[in-house]
Amino acid sequence: MTSSDLSLRLARPAEATTIANLSRDLIEYGLRWRWTPIRVAASIRAPNVNVLVACIHDKIAGFAILRHGDDDAHLELLAVAPPYRRLGVGRQLLQWLEKCAVVGGMFSIGLEVRAGNEGAQLFYKRMGYRTLAHLPGYYQGIETALRMGRDLSCRSVDHRIQGIQYNLLGFGVLHVPSSRIERIDHG
Fold first, then answer.
1. Model-level pTM?
2. Is the pLDDT of residue 42 over 70?
3. Domain around 125
């Protein structure tokens, strides 16, 4: 896979079932299915949620769901299909959503990850997240979670990021250089 093979875009309502099935198979295995097609479709339509898909040759290789709050954001789900892992797909999904959070004035992202999912924990640590708490029984009373978070007001882990690009859905691409992005101090 080359970087030109991968495209990131907001999910379409017709893709809710595919995303829900990926969640069931890759994230919610062993648990009661909570991210059903109806719930994913509601997230796609919600004004305070970004549902992002990574496509390779028009096939969904991964997805992520970020819910925006007043002061911070929460990564609800992130998954990459096994054939596309360790190719940078997850990194690109997460960086895209982090940029959206910063533009929206949120400088903190939280998430939960299964305590037994060491691969995901390592991924998030490499992306600048740190463990904040252990949550016994978090997953339906069955499994412990780790709550992790990242302060986005700190310097980016990827120092190569030169700015933010937005695909304006039929209106072209807007590029905002990092020199034009201003940090807002909330405290």
1. 0.81
2. yes
3. 3-180
